[in-house]
Amino acid sequence: MRSPRRCSRNGCPRQAVATLTYVYSDSTAVVGPLAINQEPHTYDLCETHARSLTAPRGWQLVRHDGEFETPPPTTDDLVALAEAVREAARPAPRIAQDGTPLPPTPGRRGHLRAVPPPQ
After folding, report:
1. pTM of the predicted model as reported, rounded to 2 decimal places
2. CA–CA gap between residue 16 and residue 65 (Å, rounded)
3. What is the DSSP letter of 25?
4. Is residue 107 part of a domain?
5. Is residue 74 included in any domain, yes or no?
6. Does the structure show a pLDDT above 80 at 48?
7. Separation CA 21–CA 17 (nearest Å)
């Protein structure tokens, strides 16, 4: 199972399907299909944010016109294990009695960390 890359927008839990890159020398923002590898200075976006993105004033926006597809699964066991642990640690969403979602309760987020082998 693949560890899905999440949207770079704060608070967005959706899976990324597009990559945003800025070309500063041309004053251009480019939104295209999800890059194979995460690169510095690029942003992964979900379909909603990729389609609704606007460029800064004076900039040109180049957007992929086709469908954005989710990346294919991988067999990397370590990544799959890390994602399974993250999913298990993620708190269930809180729902009010009228069915509206409640904001998450503040608290410590779980993190994975490497444990040194015993000596």
Report:
1. 0.56
2. 17
3. G
4. no
5. yes
6. yes
7. 14
